[in-house]
Amino acid sequence: MLRVIFGGTFDPIHNGHVQTSLAAFRLLKADLMQVMPSAQPPHRDYPGATPEQRLAMVRLAYAAHADIVAENWELERERPSYSLLTLQEMRATWPQDQLIFLLGNDAFAKLDSWHGWQQLLDVAHLAVMQRPHETSSWSEGVRQLAASHQVDNVQELHDRPAGCMICLPTPEIEVSATLLRDRIAASGAWEQFVPEAVAAYIKQQQLYQTD
């Protein structure tokens, strides 16, 4: 089985996450995508919604897609959400499956600041989502990694257990979680930036509102 692992804080998940990941999932021709909120994101401040609320929003965002699941892997572990540790655990759990770690170009550009980044390709493939007008430039270490591992054909990710990196064209969606939280706090317009069920949940839970 070819599994796509798409992690993030998702605080909240929005149309940018959903539409770009769906486009990448189709291009990869994978069997399953596991969308995984981070429990203790080591690269960000602590999120505004609880882990359980963020998982619930992910579940609602992809409810129409039977081959996409909300993954609570990192929420069940009392450790920082380091991608390498998670992928190593998943590799041990599903040794016969290929794992594709899906991330945006902004994150990939700074991959060499991540814990154990050079070992990621030992246990998984990397798929980098690139928007039409991408501006983030890769660091020297990341450029060297891409030069050694980048492929152009998705089939190579199906044929090898790990070790490939591929760039995928994905739509440009102008939205960010920071923008959403700010608009909700300021009672501005925001509902159009998230799936309808997620908007209803945010309202029902009264998330991101200021007192």
Can you give a write-up of this model?
By secondary structure, the protein is an alpha/beta fold. Helices cover 37% and strands 16% of the residues. It contains nine helices and six strands. The chain has a six-stranded parallel β-sheet, sandwiched between helices. Helix 2 (51-61) packs antiparallel against helix 9 (196-205). The radius of gyration is 17 Å and the shape is globular.
Give me a quick take on this structure.
This protein is α/β, with parallel strands linked by helices and 211 residues long.
| Strand arrangement across the biggest beta sheet | 3-2-1-4-5-6
Number of continuous helical runs: 9
Instruction: Assign a percent range to the helix content.
Output: 25-40%
Strand content: 15-25%
Helix and strand composition category: alpha/beta
Separation of termini?
47 Å
Quaternary assembly: single chain
- Give the beta-strand count: 6
Q: Output mean pLDDT.
A: 92
| pLDDT < 50 stretches | none
Radius of gyration over all CA atoms, rounded: 17 Å
General shape: globular
Helix and strand string, N-terminal first? Answer: EHEHEHEHHEHHEHH
**Major β-sheet profile:** 6 strands, parallel
Can you tag this structure with a few keywords?
211 residues; alpha/beta; 37% helix; 16% strand
Q: How are the SSEs ordered, and which strands pair?
A:
Blueprint: E1 2-8, H1 15-28, E2 32-37, H2 51-61, E3 68-70, H3 83-93, E4 98-104, H4 105-109, H5 120-123, E5 125-130, H6 140-149, H7 155-159, E6 165-169, H8 177-185, H9 196-205
Parallel strand pairs: 1-2, 1-4, 2-3, 4-5, 5-6
Helix pairs in contact: 2-9
